[in-house]
Amino acid sequence: MKQRQSRRQRNAPTISDVAREAGVSPMTVSRVINGERNVRERTRAEVNRAIEVLGYTPNRAARSLASADQIIIGLLYSNPSAAYLSELLVGGLEQASRHNIQLVVEKCDSEKDAESVAMRLVAGGVEGILIPPPLSDQPRMLNLLHSSDTPAVAIASECVRENIASVSIDDYRAAYEMTRHIIDLGHRRIGFITGDDNQVASGRRLAGYRDALAEAGLSHGEELIAEGRFTYRSGLDAAQKLFELDSPPTAVFASNDDMAAATVAVAHRRGLDVPTDLTVCGFDDTALATTIWPELTTIHQPIIEMARAAVDLLAERVRARRDEEELESRHQLLDFTLARRQSDAPPPDEKRRTEQRTRVVAEKLG
Question: What angle do CA 152, 154, 155 make, to 5 degrees?
């Protein structure tokens, strides 16, 4: 008897089966099951027909959770920076615990994986999704959430759609101010390590760097810009490229702290003193910025506060959806600060620069 019952449970239709039968997404099926009004009548009829044909029994536990006072939201992540992710999770989990919000955290290995995870969470009763970078800048993910009418908040992004809000800092202004700070120290050859070119923040930080140099009448030739991907490994490669120039920079501004820390490591390996021989500055002000030597001068991006604001913003939108209110487009901008520590100084004098160039040439010759 138990064996027959177990087999019957394994063969029971799932919400995905209903979605396939009706020709809709699992998210839409979930909305019909939960009695939400923002579904076309024709679609609702198709879903109900599929439920009857397949004999599908909705998950009552998920439905009761969805209708209870508690809010269940999901957070999808695939960020390569462990330091960034750590602060993001601290802020999100702390804020969720304060407001009777259950936060479901899911790791995604690819964009396609993230889409399937998002669909699974919504089908299981999750009412809203938090998407930090890089997912917050991926068009397919944003289109999926938009088309499914799932309330979402994009973190560190300026994406705003009808049902997708966002929270960020002004990345352009932050990079501009850091570059101006380095210029004011007296540096004229300033290298820059970019972030992942699939993220909007990367382009805005690069634009801030370029505009600050142009305003000061300084060169921002392509040889001074090295490609990074927000990972420590990419920072090592990018720094090596900059240091091998015939006229290497006297300062390097990296698009995040991981790559700035990698730059400091390469500098030390090449016998350069930071900051006497080389100024290195980062971005984010994660825990890494104060655990290396010397401590990094960096842009303080309030990651924990951004996560808290994102949780509040999403909870607000979920409650509005429950009350059948229209969701307005909204972008919340938080303040940044320039945190100056021990990794920046005026450029080295000509004697030290000559010594550096001699050392570089000697290394190239073997």
Answer: 135
Rounded CA-CA distance 347/323 in Å is 60
d(CA 69, CA 80) in angstroms, rounded, equals 35
Contacts of 113 (CB under 8 A, 6+ apart): none
Domain limits, CATH 3.40.50.2300, in the chain: 64-169+310-334, 171-301+339-365
Q: Which of 43, 158, 126, 110 is nearest to 118 (CA)?
A: 126
Lowest-pLDDT range, 98-107, 179-188, 268-277, 295-304?
Answer: 98-107
Q: What is the pTM of this model?
A: 0.77
> Is residue 269 a contact partner of residue 52, using CB atoms and an 8 Å limit?
no
Which CATH architecture is the domain 171-301+339-365 placed in? Answer: 3-Layer(aba) Sandwich (3.40)
Q: Is 93 exposed, middle or buried (0-12, 13-18, 19+ CB in 10 A)?
A: middle
